[in-house]
Amino acid sequence: MTARKLSIGGAALALVAAGVASTTASASANVPLTQVSADPFNNPTSQHATELEPDTFAHGNTVVGAFQVGRFFDGGASDIGVVRSGDGGRTWGTPAFLPGMTSSSGATGSPFERVSDASVAYDATHKTWLVSSIPITAAGVVPTVLVNRSTDDGRTWSAPVSMPPPAAKTVNLDKNWTVCDNHPTSPFAGNCYTELDNFAAGDVELMSTSTDGGRNWSVPVSTAGHDKGLGGQPVVQPDGTVVVPFESLNGKIEAFTSSDGGASWSKGTEVSSIRFHGVAGDLRTSPLPSAEIDAGGRVYVAWEDCRFRAKCSSNDIVFVTSSDGRRWSDAARVPIDAVTSGVDHFIPGLAVNAATTGTHAKLALTYYFYPDATCASGCRLDVGYISSPDGGAHWGPATMLAGPMSLDDIASTSQGPMVGDYISTSFAGPTATTLFAVGHRRPSATAPFDEAMYAPSSPLTVATQSQATRPSTTTGVVVPITGVGTGETHHALRDD
Question: What is the pLDDT of residue 130?
Fold first, then answer.
């Protein structure tokens, strides 16, 4: 098959559809990485070469990842890029760039200048892959959610279909996330659900449902409590109950549910308070939840939180679990390092092996971090990985996947340097894979960025019981809530 050449910071990279794109060992990191994509666009209105904010999903051995390409300073990107692996993340094919999306990507007749917030799902009933995203007009308005479909296992993609707008006086949508009910015994198997919020209506949380593989979607409806927030990540339990953890506007992680196939949604209930340490260097990040589910229906939710650090001096990654989406465990700390270390952890991407459950549930977590939360000698941005073989009771050793990066090496935005508001990790069989943005030193004044999508060259293993010697803890220094304003957290992430 013919290799496709894409320009990356002045160097040509051959991306071969059936093989590894490009392999490089990150300086100071412990594993080799594969560059799986590169920004091919040259519109003068956005930043090149930049790729960021990936989501991934796995079904069988197929892994699909989607991400922003060509980031605009004040929100959105030129297009959404998609990469596919057919062997669980061992090799990656030639990247695709979704058709029909934006005028910036050359889509004829598109009314949208930009697009943002890619989310990947798979509908096993209809054998269809979905990528949802939010398109942005030149005026900065998001009037709909777009969904691109693939019926050939992620190899090719349709032009987007549009979700109907909510019944509201004004509409400006944000932070979509899509999931499908793939449980064969569920009464709603084949339903797909997309969470979004309407910024123009005070960030009211909304849900839309598709029953035909993403071809058509219901008018988005609000919850019984007209809950307000953003960043909801729906997961589906084996009986068809949908649980949607989200970041509320009152300094909490909350969750709402549906037990009738998305016809109605409960009022949100508290999952946990948020205690957030503002990240140095103005890095764009916020305590958005990362949610997953095990084979028995237990929901896991992780976010960045400083409650275990003296004076809330830096963030850990913390997590909670629930069997019903209403009653939740106390927040536990992922023991990546000592609470006195001064390391700051953020932007978690949590995965749970859907073939495992309970005390045997396998967890994998990718995250970004600063070795020094104060950035006293300049901010050094790294990517880490850690895993648990027993449902988060114990964790193995942490591994550095990428870095160090300077904040000058990643896309510049009106709300700070950016690798993404979220990242993702997915299990394909017993091993995990992930995508994340890595920035390299600026090649030249005329080529200011070299930020692209990378994956571990080999799938990531889960720690064994003998390796998992670090217990999760709910003990430590607990401090009052700080740094989470009602509007501040949302505005730090808004694509406007």
Answer: 99
